[in-house]
């Protein structure tokens, strides 16, 4: 992102020039610089009159994305994301962003989100049964991989509904599994991921051909039925870009938070005991947002994970 707000004093700067996100040693660099310089710091990009501002404080991120968002525009910091998701809502701006936001906003109303509660619970129960079997056999459980796969299946079922099973049957496996199986996010990965758009195109075409006979209540159906103020639907290209955005953003952020929570609980058995006691004492058969919001201690644990392992937002501006 680039910023027009230059009234505040500049944060501390890293001594060595470095292009954040361009190499495999980015994370060690950021961990070291975060420990030395704090929640907000600057990095000068090599050979360019451009600074990268790395922001990891949740309140500062909220200021950029919500409170003071009009002073910021999407810039070079998200160019790599655009390679993955095209011109979806997480990278678009201006009138296109406003149009897509208006068309997609109803998807995220509480009543719409709660419709996916039974599906989320079922995915979790099947995954829990798998973990119990592994524990009984004494097998090691890779929580990072498991949370990633769980989040990916959940978001794919929310997007494709009944077409999820058919999507996986086409090649005998989940074509989007690369998101969980591979850690690199380089240009080669981005190219391969973009090729998955053909699977989305096939689902869209099949539903259009079926018409009213294939009415579903998943996110893809809601986007296909949505109309802008001029009565126009999203094009196939727009639908694919938005679905790609939902899959990437919905999967990786959720998996990262779950992974952090489990990691912290492994170091704090008393906190783990209290969390289990609260969850075990709550009726979760009819999963509602109000029920989850009432889990006060569980939500405190999640917020603590976000505080200790916060999301990172990268801002870039010319010096």
Helix-strand category: mainly alpha
Give the rounded overall mean pLDDT: 84
Q: Terminal Cα separation, in Å?
A: 14 Å
Number of helices: 16
Strand order of the largest sheet: 2-3-5
Q: Are there runs of 5+ residues with pLDDT below 50, and where?
A: none
Order of helices and strands: EHEEHEHHHHHHHHHHHHHHE
Tell me the helix content.
Answer: 55-70%
User: Roughly how many Å is the radius of gyration?
Assistant: 21 Å
Give a quick account of the main beta sheet: strands, pairing sense, barrel closure. Answer: 3 strands, antiparallel
Q: What is the tally of beta strands?
A: 5
Estimated share of beta-strand residues: 5-15%
This entry's quaternary arrangement is single chain
> Given the C-alpha coordinates, what overall shape results?
globular
Provide keyphrases for this structure.
5 strands, 58% helix, 319 residues, mainly alpha, single chain, 16 helices, 3-stranded antiparallel sheet, two-stranded antiparallel sheet
Characterise the protein shown here.
The two termini are 14 Å apart. The chain has helices at residues 26-37, 58-67, 79-85, 94-104, 110-114, 117-137, 143-160, 163-169, 178-181, 187-194, 197-210, 219-225, 236-267, 269-280, 289-293, 296-308; strands at 2-3, 40-44, 50-55, 72-73, 313-318. The chain is mainly α and 319 residues long. Helix 6 runs antiparallel to helix 7 (143-160) and helix 7 packs antiparallel against helix 13.
